[in-house]
């Protein structure tokens, strides 16, 4: 999706949110869970490139349910930002990883099934990591 031009079928708000979703999920921030829950918790997101750290509170997956202390979040009125999206992406990825691991654990006894499944599917599964 282009950064400079809004797709015609998309509202300005959705487009701006989508840009942050894509951008945030592609970042390599350092993530620290400083709350008590695994998912709906408080996080510190640190950008190693400029040493900035922001506090992100994850309370849901819908825009407006979460909070970030960065200037973009304070002014964009979208209810999301790249830091929040980064945390959500990381959490989704972990959940997927867990599901994949559990499934592999169940199928682990059947070596033939594993061989038949092959490495191709692993690549495909990895591919939706940022999606
Ligand atoms: Zn932010």
Describe this protein's structure.
By secondary structure, the protein is an alpha+beta fold. The chain has one domain. It has helices at 12-25, 71-76, 82-107, 111-117, 120-127, and strands at residues 30-33, 42-47, 52-57, 67-68. A four-stranded antiparallel sheet has the order 1-2-3-4, with helices on one face. A hairpin with a 4-residue loop joins strand 2 (42-47) and strand 3 (52-57). The model is unreliable at 118-131 (pLDDT under 50). Residues 54, 68, 70, 72-73, 81, 83-84 line the site of zinc ion (ZN).
Mean model confidence by pLDDT: 81
> Termini, distance in Å?
13 Å
How many distinct folded domains?
1
Helix content: 40-55%
β-strand amount: 5-15%
Structural class: alpha+beta
Q: Could you describe the largest sheet, including whether it forms a barrel?
A: 4 strands, antiparallel
Instruction: Provide the spatial order of strands within the biggest beta sheet.
Output: 1-2-3-4
Poorly predicted regions are 118-131
Q: Which H/E pattern describes the elements?
A: HEEEEHHHH
Number of strands: 4
Radius of gyration from the CA trace? 18 Å
Bound heterogens, unique: zinc ion
Q: What is the overall number of helices?
A: 5
C-alpha geometry? globular
